Amino acid sequence: MFDKILIANRGEIACRVIKTARRMGIATVAVYSDADRNALHVRMADEAIHIGPAQANQSYIVIDKVMQAIRDSGAEAVHPGYGFLSENPKFAAALAEAGVAFIGPPQAAIEAMGDKITSKKLADEAGVSTVPGHMGLIEDADEAAKIASEIGYPVMIKASAGGGGKGMRIAWDDAEAREGFQSSKNEAANSFGDDRIFIEKFVTQPRHIEIQVLADTHGNCIYLGERECSIQRRNQKVIEEAPSPFLDEDTRRAMGEQAVALAQAVNYTSAGTVEFIVDGDRNFYFLEMNTRLQVEHPVTELITGVDLVEEMIRVAAGEKLRLTQGDVRLTGWAMESRLYAEDPYRGFLPSIGRLTRYRPPQEVAAGPMHDAGKWLPVVGGGDAPVGETATRNDTGVFEGGEISMYYDPMIAKLCTWGPDRDAAIEAMRLALDRFELEGIGHNLPFLSAVMDHPTFVAGEMTTAFIAEEYPDGFAGVDLSDAHIDRIAAAAAAMNRVAEIRRTRISGRMDNHERRIGTDWVVFVQGREIRVITDADREGATVRFEDGSEMRVTSDWRPGQPLAIVHVDRVPVVMKVARITGGFRIRTRGADLPVKIFSPRQAELARLMPEKEDADTSRLLLCPMPGLVVKLHVEEGAEVQDGQPLCTIEAMKMENILRAEKKGVVSKINASEGDSLAVDEIIMEFE
Length: 686
Fold this sequence. Notes:
The protein is an alpha+beta fold.
């Protein structure tokens, strides 16, 4: 076994590898850029080596710099994580030449499967079902439109060397094919240094389901069930689960056997993932093989009890697999929510800044092991308790740290496990509500909304879920009346506690007693709810106008940002901030100003006019921090609804800003190459 390994990556995946290596007694070496000097993975590793400027193409993906760090540290093996150099055959070749073990597949397998065009041809030869498409290289936008038309719209335009949703576009007509070809080509060149593009048929009503494979150097290969990754935004996965609620045992076995056949056809070793698109009739088609550890690997670990990072290390050290296919058991259900630094209220655009508060929910020991008699602790060990459901948070950030514009916007991967799908979803709901994150825009509200969405709860989602269910973007959540009643009861009880605290501080209490009003009007989500609050030492009974009652208990105290309140024994987890006249409460994807007034105050409040938002309809504002890649119009130009105005690059993704209505450009305030902040004015209209 290795004594020391280097992790050629950053962020949560570097931290994830370090945890397992530490448990195995293996020393670790981190590499870092200027932007990551104080990063969590640097703090966790036994030693760390600086490799260059913040830009990944000057640090993390420069093979010579990583190889020098390997020589300087004396590391015997390298784990590449995902992204960066993880699927770069030149890096694997450099390691082999230097006599350093690559904790991943052979160079030939990376070359064969890393190129989507070649991999589809090999999959077809291995008897794996593939999607119809054009596997040859495409020279320009006109040829792309011609090929797409011949295949039949809609089509998927994809970067041959792509991954992570980058360099991918769906086109529904010739115009979109031309535009998508150029954007995909640009993103592919910037992210992978390879701008080759191919086109394939886009399967309608698709589900994205992938098979985890694991192979050693002794000819053994197994599959560890599937993951469903259908909740996607811009082809980037947002929520994953294992197993899939859609597959039956026969389809699972057929997909698994085809995945193993493909892996064996290219002499694959280590952990890898074969991705399929599955239609409504459970017909499945090969998409690609990722020759690395997947972002969503924790859900497989939670239902199988297999630490995939440990198995990768053991395979790289020449050991045989410790499992056969017959040993694999899928137990319970696991969910993963990807927490991104992006604002769902602004079209999911990237957000950067300092994490002024970062308090994940407590991790709880996870999922039964494959022998069904033990429990796999939270990866990395520690003193996490064991529970009926489990919580795991893979992260690479900390409170006070910064989210940089240079790298992927993922903050953490929050995972839960339960004995069945409903239990795993409920555990995720509570974990998301308990996750305290302030300082940047983030997608926690959206993740919570998905967990309560009827289509997702029923397991009937497709990869079009976000586009179909949120066609106009995410604007928050309207909670049910029953849930609003619980929040009103909780807020009324909390308000009484806050009133007692306020009067004590003001010194207006006689003998620590002062009559606090019992009659209140709660304004929340457009409703006025009259309540009477009767308090005692154990909690409060809140009575509504219709005579119904709710019992509220909690140990919440004013100033605490997280309240766990039991309303009729139902846990209601809320993030709480004091505002004038009440609280700002965030729960289950909703962001609610909750005003609590006496009857007289409520009467006066109804007379107050509402403040109107400033009119920005004649301005194009930069929706996120980014670089102006291209201005598509000039001053004086007449633009039409939907016409491209400006392309902004942020966090390795190109974003095309379009006109919302017909107009004339009166002034352009930015130039190509400018770095802009959020809401900075790009152009003005007459």
